[in-house]
Amino acid sequence: MASNRLKMSLLPALQAILDTGSVTRAADQMHVTQSTMSRTLSQLRETLNDPILIREGNHIFLSEKARQVQPLVSKLMADSETLFENQYFDPATSEHHFRIGTGSVILENFLIQALIELKQVAPGVTSSVSLPCENMISSMESGELDLGVIVTLPDTTESLCKEVVAAASFNVLMHKTHPMSGCETLDLTEMEKYPFVITQAVIAASPYINGLREQYEFLRNPWLKLPSLQAALKAIRSNDAFTIVTNVEYLAMDLFGDYVLLPTLADSPPLKFELVWPEHWQFNQAHQWMRGFLLSRLQSFFEKGE
């Protein structure tokens, strides 16, 4: 029995190691020294009969067994937090930590301000934010992330709980001085003579955009491939270039004055801007409160933009 209690006490450290893939970062997250976390990793390796972390060259990866147990560990930790936190949850005294995934536009134009406001009512609540990657949905399914504030494609979040904030779509964006800015309809073949700017976030997020690039050679060979929409806006401001964005990004950045969003691209899938989270957080009071806090501010934010 004592042995089982010891093993259970190792769960928080195990989750930190699985989430960060690093002894150093896990130690920071647990507020312990690196040597303490290294000793804990040794205990975990002995208990699980597995290396957990594997070094290959200059990189460290989770072992196959570690990847397999990660969703279970996340669920166990969420269930234990729900059991105890729900008895006495108070945002003013809570020390819950949220791992949030979102895009850079939403982070910079909405989420940062929301987290600043959060500190006023829940000073002990902390958050870490991850920017989008191709594996963001799977990161929530595995328990690496607790909450996503993202634009989703159809049928990609069926395994997750969700709350729809707004409908979304892919659109062509250009400066108001662009020759095509007055068009009420758009055929992409008409855009072939204009420079195309693509952002890395759009490439990573959408098979639909990649399908368009297969269909149109001029999309396949963009004038510029840039890491952020902010950089793309500077590129299209001073010439006849264009880019592809979602209407959510357009609203979030309040681009109405200088830029024009043309109608939804043909055959664009019906996107949704959603709050999404793993099912094991569904009934946790801290998580429920955080979702309500963000949702009310998101709805207010986008109502003002519209």
From TrEMBL:
Source organism's superkingdom? Answer: Bacteria
Sequence ranges assigned to domain HTH lysR-type in this UniProt record: 6-63
- Respond yes or no to whether keyword Transcription is given for this record: yes
Q: Which UniProt keywords apply?
A: DNA-binding, Transcription, Transcription regulation
- SUPFAM superfamilies for this protein: Periplasmic binding protein-like II (SSF53850), Winged helix' DNA-binding domain (SSF46785)
InterPro entries (UniProt xref): LysR-type_TF (IPR050389), LysR_HTH_N (IPR000847), LysR_subst-bd (IPR005119), WH-like_DNA-bd_sf (IPR036388), WH_DNA-bd_sf (IPR036390)
Query: What Pfam families has UniProt attached to this entry?
Result: HTH_1, LysR_substrate
Q: Which GO terms describe its molecular function?
A: DNA binding; DNA-binding transcription factor activity
Q: Which family does it belong to?
A: Belongs to the LysR transcriptional regulatory family.
State the name under which the record lists this protein. HTH lysR-type domain-containing protein
Q: Which organism is it from?
A: Endozoicomonas numazuensis
